[in-house]
Design goal:
Layout: H1 6-35, H2 41-44, E1 50-52, E2 55-62, E3 65-72, E4 74-77, E5 83-94, E6 101-112, E7 117-120, E8 123-129, H3 154-165, E9 166-172, E10 175-177, E11 182-193, E12 196-206, E13 211-224, E14 227-233, E15 235-239, E16 244-254, E17 257-268, E18 274-287, E19 292-295, E20 297-302, E21 308-314, E22 317-323, E23 326-332, E24 334-339, E25 345-351, E26 354-361, E27 365-372, E28 374-381, E29 387-405, E30 412-425, E31 431-445, E32 451-463, E33 484-498, E34 511-521, E35 526-530, E36 534-536, E37 540-543, E38 546-550, E39 556-566, E40 571-572, E41 582-583, E42 595-605, E43 610-621, E44 624-634, E45 639-643, E46 650-659, E47 674-682, E48 684-688, E49 693-697, E50 704-707, E51 712-715, E52 717-722, E53 738-751, E54 754-764, E55 769-773, E56 781-784, E57 788-791, E58 794-798, E59 803-807, E60 814-816
Antiparallel strand pairs: 1-2, 2-3, 3-5, 4-5, 5-6, 6-7, 6-8, 7-10, 8-9, 9-11, 10-11, 11-12, 12-13, 13-14, 13-15, 14-16, 15-16, 16-17, 17-18, 18-19, 18-20, 19-22, 20-21, 21-24, 22-23, 23-26, 24-25, 25-28, 26-27, 27-29, 28-29, 29-30, 30-31, 31-32, 32-33, 33-34, 34-35, 34-36, 35-38, 36-37, ...
Length: 821
């Protein structure tokens, strides 16, 4: 919004100059009426008139001061009707203190003694010395002050300033009524001052009431500095005693715009400076660029230098502004204006419901609306005497709504609200910074269709400058000229993001994030959370020292002391919809409760529901656990993948079925069978929650090693199948237990000093048996330090009674006994 207060000040100043000029001119006629009666001239010709070669001069004084002088080339007393004519008249009027001198001159004046009226038969010229400008210099007197003080005395300064201070008035058909004290003319009245000239059609002055009326078509052309100014009014009235001026249909225009008022009431001080302007029936300021501020009524207060100090606009203030590609409008019931000591507008206070609306057409069509109960606008000086909005501050609850739409694209809405909002404007009046304090909230929809809500105690956003281009290869969520470059949110930060549903699929769970501090980067649409951050995507709760959340994709990265809880909520199947699209499988390690994870860092992939944990990662669910350098959970596929390294293999700990301990002590029986633990080390592990099956490979670890209470096995790979939770005879019935372990490839089993080798080993937790098999070329073999070695088609180790069975199925078995040394 660009406009200048000079239009207001010019309206008042030129109106004052015009009216004071006319007032003093007609006041001269008032002096004429009060101090001189034309009918007395013939009676005084012999006593008081000094005859001169060119006519006569009549002087009247009082208390040693000259009041007025009348000079005429001749006076003709007419015999009929008591009329007299004065030719080549010049009247000089002096103030009672002798400090002012004005002159009225005309070719001919007619005096009607019966009607008590004096009428100028032709043109009349009035030369006025404005009050306070030039002291009087008596006719024929030349200032000759002492040399040392010639320029400092009042009489000496008058000679040098009289010409610049005078006002010339020209009119014709002037009639003065002695009985009423009213002087009128219907002719054109012309004014001339040092700064310019003016005119009106018709004028009336009542010397008794001190009332001056300029009938119509009032105009004054002056210069304010180097700028031409034109004041026009339909009608003007001036009250001398009250020092007030009333204008109807007033408008002041100059190079940078125009100010207008349906009715203007101006109050002047005794020194002629404007004190107050009151406007009604429409009060507006309009700039050449299209900026306009208007209200039904308003007022301005001025200092002694005619500079505005404060103002009020009431009845519904409206603001309009336009520039290439941008339009701005606003409204408020009231506005209060404040000015600098130089009379420049610096502050506007709007109340009782403020609305600001802007539209911008660029790479996208951007619409923004501001609503607040109260708004304070700060202005700054710009080029060519214009003003620009520097900032706007709303209180009492501010809401900013917006819409952005690219050609052929969908409408992307946004909404910001806070108890208090401050916006700062750039050089082109674009919004460059927004700060919201108290219940601050930012709601928007991205180009990808994700709905985002960010809230906190304080929100600060920096917007891209006009003309900035969006990041290469990225679709911006709003017009490039208004794109958020960065944002900071402090205190009780809450982020909610809902990704749109893919065609034919159920919408994914909404992601929420909490933190004490958040920083947003517009270039990559990343939100960095610190201060005990926490993320919940509907199935996984994640905390860390720092969380980075992508608002474009919904991905999240966690660093430092990562802790996560997998809640095992119902999971949508990939590529399906409807009632059957919800899978009832659980993710974790087969248990019923939540799965917990700790790691050094983690990543959540919102689109796939995949979570990756790295750096001393460990997951546990009830009694089962797994640790590895990297653990990947896939919610959609209900899988867990753990990857190890040579220095840190994957460690899997699972609850197994009941086994009897082999350890005996003197005089004691073995412990009764009960749940035991299966511990496995491998290069990598892949677990499927839907199948309740884990596949283990040797990988970087070199082998898959499984250890139970009774035996230790190693192999190239292994497969573990779990029982459903509660689907076993364990007393607690809670944790999932191992149903079966199958080891394949270069199998080695050791138990109680025995060592068996083969190609496959199957362990059943229900029976407690280890069944070792081989190939026809390499049958399984068991070596016992007491009984020697034995082979067969299958060797069965029974963990409950510490026995070994050999199955041959009719084939030859071989036993080799080795005597102990």
């Amino acid at each position: 919004m660009r406009f200048t207060i000079e239009r207001l000040r010019t309206l008042v100043l030129v109106a004052g100059a015009l009216l004071i000029a006319a007032l003093v001119g007609f006041l001269a006629l008032g002096h004429w009426r009060n101090r001189f009666n034309l009918k007395e001239i013939p009676q005084r010709l012999g006593a008081d008139i000094q005859r001169e070669a060119n006519g006569f001069t009549y002087t009247q004084s009082h208390g040693g001061h000259t009041l007025f002088k009348i000079h005429a080339s001749r006076v003709v007393q007419l015999k009929l009707g008591g009329r007299a004519q004065l030719h080549d008249v010049q009247i000089e009027l002096y103030g009672e203190d002798g400090t002012t001198v004005d002159r009225i001159s005309g070719g001919e004046f007619d005096w009607d003694d019966k009607a008590k009226k004096a009428t100028a038969a032709g043109p009349v010229e009035i030369t006025i010395m404005r009050p306070g400008v030039a002291p009087a210099v008596a006719h024929g007197v030349h200032a000759q002050p002492p040399a040392a003080k010639s320029k400092s005395t009042p009489l000496g300064s008058a000679a040098s300033t009289a010409a610049s201070g005078q006002i010339d008035v020209k009119t014709s058909g002037l009639t003065f009524d002695e009985q009423t004290g009213i002087a009128t003319t219907a002719a054109r009245v012309e004014f001339s001052v040092a700064q310019g000239d003016g005119s009106s059609l018709g004028a009336t002055f009542d010397s008794d009431k001190g009332e001056l009326i300029l009938d119509r078509d009032v105009q004054l052309n002056v210069r304010h500095g180097k700028e031409p100014v034109v004041l026009r009014a339909q009608h003007g009235e001036f009250q001398r005693d009250e020092l007030t001026c009333d204008l109807i249909g007033a408008a002041a225009g100059y190079r940078n715009g125009q100010a207008s008022a349906g009715q203007a009431h101006i109050l002047f001080r005794q020194d002629g400076s404007a004190q107050r302007l009151e406007a009604r029936d429409g009060f507006s300021l309009t700039g050449t660029t299209g900026a306009r501020v208007a209200a039904p009524s308003g007022s301005l207060d001025f200092n002694e230098r005619n500079q505005p100090t404060r103002g009020d606009m009431e009845g519904g203030v409206t603001m309009e502004s336009s520039s290439p590609g941008r339009t701005t409008s606003g409204s408020a019931p009231t506005a209060q204006l404040a000015f600098t000591s130089r009379g420049e507008l610096r502050h506007a206070h709007l109340e009782r419901g403020v609305i600001l609306h802007s539209e911008q057409q660029g790479t996208a069509h951007l619409v923004r609306d501001w609503r607040s109960p109260v708004a304070d606008i700060e202005f700054r000086s710009a080029a060519h005497g214009q003003l620009q909005m520097a900032s706007v501050r709303g209180t009492g609850g501010v809401t900013i709504t917006g819409q952005a739409q690219r050609p052929g694209g969908s409408v992307l809405p946004s909404r910001m609200s806070a108890d208090q909002v401050t916006g700062e404007f750039g050089a082109h009046q674009e919004l460059k910074r927004i700060v919201g304090v108290g219940h601050a909230s930012l709601e928007q929809t991205t180009a990808a269709g994700a709905h985002q809500v960010t809230s906190g105690d304080r929100l600060e956003a920096m917007l891209a400058p006009a003309g900035a281009a969006p990041s290469k290869g990225k679709s911006s969520q709003s017009d490039a000229a208004q794109q958020i470059q960065s944002a900071t949110v402090d205190g009780n930060v809450l982020l909610t993001q809902q990704q749109p549903a893919k065609p034919g699929e159920t919408p994914p769970p909404a992601m929420t994030a909490n933190a004490g501090h958040a920083v947003y980067e517009g270039a990559g649409e990343w939100l960095h959370l610190t201060g005990n951050p926490r993320v919940d995507d509907g199935g996984l709760q994640l905390t860390a020292d720092k969380l980075d959340v992508s608002q474009s994709s919904g991905d999240a990265f966690a660093r430092g002391n990562v802790k996560a809880t997998w809640l095992n909520a119902n999971i949508a199947k990939v590529g399906s919809s409807g009632p059957d699209s919800i899978a009832q499988g659980r993710i974790g390690l087969g248990g019923q409760g939540p799965a917990h994870v700790v790691a050094a860092e983690a990543r959540l992939h919102q689109a796939t529901g995949e979570a990756t944990f790295r750096g001393q990662a460990r997951l546990w669910q009830q009694a089962n656990s797994i640790s590895a350098p990297e653990i990947v959970l896939d919610r959609a596929r209900q899988t867990l993948v753990a990857r190890g390294a040579a220095s840190q293999p994957v460690n899997l700990v699972l609850l197994s079925g009941g086994e009897q301990s082999r350890k005996r002590t003197a005089g004691k029986q073995p412990k009764a069978a009960g749940p035991s633990v299966l511990q496995v080390w491998a290069g990598d592990v892949k677990y499927s929650g839907a199948e309740r099956r884990a596949i283990l490979h040797a990988g970087a670890a070199g082998s898959v090693t499984a250890e139970t209470a009774s035996a230790t096995t190693s192999s190239n790979e292994a497969e573990i199948v779990l029982l459903p939770p509660g689907n076993h005879a364990a007393p607690d019935g809670g944790s999932a237990q191992v149903d079966r372990l199958t080891a394949r490839g270069r199998v080695v089993i050791t138990s109680e000093g025995r060592r068996g080798t083969g190609e496959q080993l199957v362990y059943s937790s229900e029976t407690g048996d280890y069944v070792l098999t081989g190939t026809a070329a390499a049958p399984p073999r068991m070596t016992d330090p007491v009984h020697g070695s034995v082979t067969g088609e299958a060797l069965i180790f029974n963990s409950r009674d510490d026995s070994v069975s050999i199955e041959g199925h009719g084939q030859k078995t071989q036993t080799q006994t080795v005597a102990p040394k």
